[in-house]
TrEMBL record:
It holds the Pfam family HSCB_C. The keyword RNA-binding does not apply. CDD domains: DnaJ (cd06257). SUPFAM superfamilies: Chaperone J-domain (SSF46565), HSC20 (HSCB), C-terminal oligomerisation domain (SSF47144). PROSITE patterns: DNAJ_2. InterPro entries: DnaJ_domain (IPR001623), HscB (IPR004640), HscB_C_sf (IPR036386), HscB_oligo_C (IPR009073), J_dom_sf (IPR036869). Keywords: Chaperone. This is J domain-containing protein. HAMAP family: HscB (MF_00682). Belongs to the HscB family. Residues 82-146 form the J domain. Transmembrane segments: none annotated.
Length: 248
């Protein structure tokens, strides 16, 4: 319920009668607009300024609102590097993918270029950047491995790209699974391997979820590294099954 309330607040952009708050806002002549360079890379540098409307200077009390309550201008995200906050979601590994998808669609409908066709160039640019950011965030939140990596980073436990795992038994098991995959063209064997690997992925997702819930980030990280191996094999199997026309 709490989450839903937050989302409701998120979309309650103004007290006006217009549900989507797209009315008005023409002729933004204020020089404040010129203050900001509008590129994706500059979202982060705008963070401290994002607590005020870039156009009219009004203090943004609810920084999750997309639009300024006073002048209706689209605002830059306050924390562009936090994908959970962009979606008004709790910073938790276990998320409702249907809810994520619904929020994504709503956000993209608010940020659709058509909605800004009569707006200033500045707002067009903010909306385009915002929309790209939402796509990127969605792609990261949607995939459990990417979501876990992002969450670890937010919690100050960044995973290095080349981080290895110190577990010889596990490494041996993965090597054997990959060899099994390399050595077969038999469709049924591939399907069996696919099921087996997907089960492993499901189990590890549960373990990662438990670790995050317990706040055990070291262990979460350990499982996330393991997950990378299973995910990599999963990608290889899927690619082969696609080649064979077994899956889309
Ligand atoms: Zn404003």
């Amino acid at each position: 319920m709490f989450v839903f309330n937050r989302i409701r607040t998120f979309y309650k952009v103004t007290n006006c009668k217009c549900k989507f708050n797209y009315h008005t806002l023409n002729n933004p002549t204020t020089s404040l607009i010129k203050k900001y360079p509008y590129s994706m890379n500059n979202f982060a540098s705008q963070r401290s300024d994002s607590k005020q409307c870039w156009k009219c200077g009004l203090e943004r009390k609810n920084t999750e609102n997309l639009f300024c309550k006073e002048c209706n201008a689209l605002q830059n995200p306050v924390e562009p590097n936090n994908y959970f906050k962009l979606f008004s979601l709790e910073e938790e590994f276990n998320i409702d993918s249907k809810q994520l998808h619904n929020i994504y669609r709503k956000l993209q409908s608010y940020l659709h270029p058509d909605k800004f066709s009569n707006k200033s160039d500045e707002e067009k640019e903010i909306s385009a950047n915002y929309s790209s950011l939402i796509n990127k965030a969605y792609n990261n939140l949607q995939v459990p491995l990417k979501r876990a990596v992002h969450l670890l980073q937010l919690k100050g436990n960044k995973l290095n790209e080349d981080q290895k795992i110190d577990d010889p038994d596990f490494l041996m098991e993965m090597m054997e699974l990959n060899e099994e995959f390399d050595d077969t063209d038999d469709v049924n064997k591939l399907k069996d391997l696919d099921i087996k690997n997907k089960n492993q992925l499901e189990n590890i997702v549960k373990q990662i979820d438990e670790c995050f819930k317990e706040g055990n980030l070291t262990q979460a990280k350990f499982y996330v590294i393991k997950m990378k191996y299973y995910a990599s094999l999963n990608n290889r199997i899927n690619a082969r099954l696609r080649e064979l026309g077994i899956v889309d």
